[in-house]
Amino acid sequence: MKLVIHPAVESSRLSSIMNAAGLIRVVNAKSTEEATREIVDADAFFGKLTPELLSHAQRLRWVQAPTASLEHYLFPELIAHPCALSNMRGLFSDVIADHVLGLVVCFARNLHLYIRQQTERRWEPMGGEQARTDFISGPGVENAIDRAHRHLADQTLGIVGCGAIGSEIARRARAFGLRVMGVDSKPRALPGIIDDVWPVERLSQLLSESDYVVIAAPHTPQTEKLFRAPQFAAMRRSAYLINIGRGAIVDLADLTAALRSGLIAGAGLDVFETEPLPTDHELWGMPNVIITPHIAGASPRVPQRHLETLLENIRRFVNNEPLATQVDKHAWY
User: Fold this and answer.
1) Which pLDDT band holds residue 128 (cuts at 50, 70, 90)?
2) Which among 116, 119, 246, 308 counts the fewest CB atoms within 10 Å?
3) Which CATH code, of 3.30.360.10, 1.10.10.60, 3.40.50.720, 3.40.190.10, is assigned to 2-91+301-318?
């Protein structure tokens, strides 16, 4: 059997791959021409597969994508091909969940606003004009300052997409005392986390009950532009949208309009319909928006996890076992 890798990987990673492959011949193709030649009789492929490369494959049985998301990896010929496809899901769950809870805490405690005030050397508790009077009079009764800061255990977090990442977000949110809800294309219970994950048809109900709405779904034909003006209208005016899923799930113009008009309270955004977000885009100047440049999954742990997933799938392929991260090509995940 033969495994073709393209683009080529560095020597240390190649050594680990060859050890896992055992008697399988591993070709670390350094050029497109070499990959085209070698894929003809390859049984497995790891890397960036193109329609041109696939057209030369005569006995390909397994393709390992180098990414977790597949919207930019899949193409019609690959979907129709009988080969199995696996991805890199599961590498980022805890990392992205940390990012999400960081955004939730920022919004609950107004940290994003206080950081801006710090750069201006301005001491001003949130709560509007009344906050100044309340601050002077001191604590004792609920005041404008109290009302401007949220108590997380009184809040509800709704998750759209309860896969590995969504489930980990839910687990961490529960630790903060938040009530957690979820919708998913595969309704089920998440024992100890969410008793009843609803079907996507109940999205409007989730939106109406959530103080924070987190998009953790993959980009698929069903989720593309799932969030448009009607979904923002269904949210609470005091609610925040957090998107660490895919930018294509949220219509950027409709989101901007919803934020501009105060239809929702704010947004924490790591992914966008257009990336990079244009420097002249209105969102940059909105104080109720936190923008991060598609880094929610960044962590020093990820490269090693990436290699471990690849090696485990190679081991399983060699031993004719089910792949650990096989996907449904038609569903895109």
Assistant:
1) confident
2) 119
3) 3.40.50.720
